[in-house]
Amino acid sequence: MLIFDEVVTGFHISPGGAQGSTDIIPDINTLAEIVAGDLPGYAVASSSEIMNCLDHNACGFLNREKIIQHSSAFEQVNDMSIRIRLSLNHVIKSKGSDWLVYGEASAFHLYRGNELLIQDSAKFYPKKVGRQSLYKQPADTTRLLKLAMNINGVDMSGWPRVLISAKHTEKGIDETIEPFTKSIELLEPILEF
Predict the structure, then answer these.
(1) N or C: the chain end with fewer CB closer than 10 Å?
(2) The domain spanning residue 135 has which CATH number?
């Protein structure tokens, strides 16, 4: 039996979740807040053959046959993620740094390596760089940047990997750019920027 735990990935990867992007259909799929518009909620999805074997009363399921369809939330989240990646890369480029914000769907990551001179985030392929290079980052950069963002009023939970949710708006995304710029300026004397 194949179980996908998409509590984190959910629709953050594609409108069909990880199974939609990999074309692998699990026997059971679990989802969390993404199915409830980032409010507390969860879902277990499977075929009726498997779902009928579960004791729904023991798990607290109220309606085992309710079908949930997501609306345009994925498209909104994806658009906001593209917006913040482009905006942060614009700030980084204006500072003359070789850092790079990259990602897909609702996630974005900060690559702080300086052995690659990549100017275009659309041409950045993390798999080609390799896990070792992605994790070989200048010492203490992540902690300092997260602290600088907090000082400037923005909590980037999960930094250097951040997920955008359906709660994020254009205004909220735009309001992140100035604190990021101030954080970079604050850290320029300390970091290899």
Answers:
(1) N
(2) 3.90.1150.10
96: region left, alpha or beta (phi > 0 left; psi from -120 to 50 alpha): left
Write the pLDDT tens digit of every residue in 142-165: 788 889 999 999 887 766 677 777
Tell me the pTM.
Answer: 0.67
Mark whether 86 and 149 lie in a shared domain. yes
User: What crossing angle do the helices spanning 170-187 and 73-94 adopt, rounded to 10°?
Assistant: 30
- Phi/psi for 104 (5° steps) reads -145, 160
The string of pLDDT tens digits covering residues 25-44 is 899 888 877 666 666 667 78
Q: What are phi and psi of 43, to 5 degrees?
A: -150, 145
